[in-house]
Amino acid sequence: MRETPISLVLDARGAMGLSLSKVTMAKVIDKAETVGAAFASIRNSNHFGIAGYYTEMAARRDMIGICMTNTAALGVPTFGRHAMFGTNPIAVSVPALAGGMFTLDMATTCVTRGKIEVYDREGKTLPSGWAVDTKGKGTTDAHGLLEDMLFQRGGGLLPLGGEGEEFSGYKGYGLAVLVDIMTAVTSGGVFGRSVMDSEATSARVCHFFCAIRLDLFREPEELKSDMSRLLAELVNAEPAEGCERVYYAGLKEHEAEALSAKIGVPLSAKIAAQLRQIGQGLGIAFPG
Questions:
Q1: What predicted TM-score, i.e. pTM, was given to this entire model?
Q2: How far is Cα 77 from Cα 173, in angstroms, rounded to an integer?
Q3: Alpha-carbon distance 13 to 209, whole Å?
Q4: What is the Cα–Cα distance from 202 to 198, expressed in whole angstroms?
Q5: CA dist., res. 27 & res. 77, Å (int)
Q6: pLDDT attached to residue 149
Q7: DSSP one-letter code for 114
Q8: What is the rounded end-to-end Cα distance, in angstroms, of the chain?
Q9: Which of 130, 199, 228, 267 is the most buried (most CB within 10 A)?
């Protein structure tokens, strides 16, 4: 749709978000290699997977990576009762020495829909403070919440920080709206309550990507050295009573990735049963 030496705007036309997003971030990184920093936004796309995947693409090339996406409207604004924005994640990666990195990848709601779906599948009650019902009051009913969100009856997920002003839920609300601006308003896509799933198709969503060369600020090795010192300070911080250790953003995920590479990806019993059932229908044997 529009391209300059430092920017790119694309219309996905309903294409798969995963493949297009990887290609787009690669092009953003290539542009940043030449001019120092580059940006892209995409409209009319689909779910693109893990936002941190794309920011880490940039971090591995000695850049700061930034990525955002809007999603189907699931989040209820402070003092509201209807979903007006998505879980709208924000991801940022900054490299450190020896392949280490800080990767913040967070929803701007208290929890993601995927987490609600896990509770629904396992028949668990939701913790209080995660969501509200059609009246804007707290709910712990995972299945009812999912149904209400699908058909936009009201209710939804609370913004990061929780209900009302006491725990600063308005900050998460503000971040969620910022993501809609950076992804959808910049690309001319759909935003806010208009982003919706249906029984027939997923919502058409919008993405934002950014890469910034480290050497715009400092010598890359010096910056990465300071990043390593910062992350080491956090990891070595004294944990609270009853806690084992302190983490920084991305550490748990990187450790889990390394472990899964050795022993495989753990699955819950219900997920394993569902995969076996799907495999049987397709004539594919379940491994192991």
A1: 0.90
A2: 6
A3: 18
A4: 6
A5: 35
A6: 86
A7: H
A8: 48
A9: 130
Q: Taking Cα atoms as reference points, which of 191, 189, 208 lies closest to residue 54?
A: 208
- Give pLDDT, residue 270: 82
Query: 278: buried, middle or exposed (CB in 10 Å: 19+, 13-18, 0-12)?
Result: exposed
Dihedrals phi, psi of 134, to nearest 5 degrees:
-65, -15
Task: Tell me the pLDDT tens digit for each residue of 40-56.
Answer: 999 999 999 999 999 99
Angstrom distances, CA of residue 3 to CA of 9, 19, 24, 27, 241: 6, 19, 12, 11, 53
Q: Say if residues 226 and 67 touch (Cβ distance below 8 Å).
A: no
Q: How far apart are CA 59 and CA 29, in angstroms?
A: 10
What rounded mean pLDDT belongs to the chain? Answer: 94
Q: What separation in angstroms does the CA of 130 have from each of 66, 111, 153?
A: 26, 7, 18
- 129 Cα distance to chain centroid: 20
Instruction: Tell me the sheet residues that pair with 254.
Output: none
Q: Which helix (H) or strand (E) holds 39?
A: strand 37-45
Q: For the domain bounded by 2-222, which CATH number is listed?
A: 3.30.1370.60
Give the 3-state secondary structure of residue 67: strand
Q: How is residue 285 annotated by DSSP?
A: P
Both tokens of residue 203?
A: 């919502």
pLDDT (tens digit per residue) in 51-92: 999 999 999 999 999 999 999 999 999 999 999 999 999 999
Determine how β-strand 205-213 pairs with β-strand 101-106.
unpaired
- Token readout for 167 is 């725990």
CA 34 to chain centre: 28
Provide the 3-class DSSP secondary structure of residue 257. helix
